[in-house]
Amino acid sequence: MKINPSTKEIFTDTGTFVKRLHCPISMMWKDIMENGSNTRACSHCDKTIYDTEHLIDAEIEHLLVKDPQACLKISLDQDNVKIVH
Fold first, then answer.
1. How many CB atoms lie within 10 A of CB 29?
2. Average pLDDT over residues 64-77
3. Which neighbouring-strand residues pair with 3?
């Protein structure tokens, strides 16, 4: 997965656009209630937030096909993230 921190756009490793991240609420991951092994439930918008740290591009794409509005947790220091500009 590639991410442009300036635009908050996510791409696959092959360059296919996946999603633009947008969340008006700034919360710490540790402060959000767990609701699965790699998911948390946002108490502000009732959406599920998916931790992408151990997901491959195909899993993220599949997740977003099922739920285009899904929220993603991405850290710039994840092993599966490449920063692009």
1. 10
2. 91
3. 10, 83
Amino acid sitting at position 12: T
Other C-beta atoms within 10 Å of 26: how many? 5
d(CA 4, CA 19): 11
pLDDT of residue 23: 87
Question: Which residue carries 């591009």 as its tokens?
Answer: 57
For the chain, what's the residue count?
Answer: 85
58's enclosing H/E stretch is: helix 57-66
The pLDDT tens digits of the residues spanning 10-48 come to 999 999 999 999 888 888 888 899 998 899 998 888 888
Greatest Cα pair distance in the chain: 34
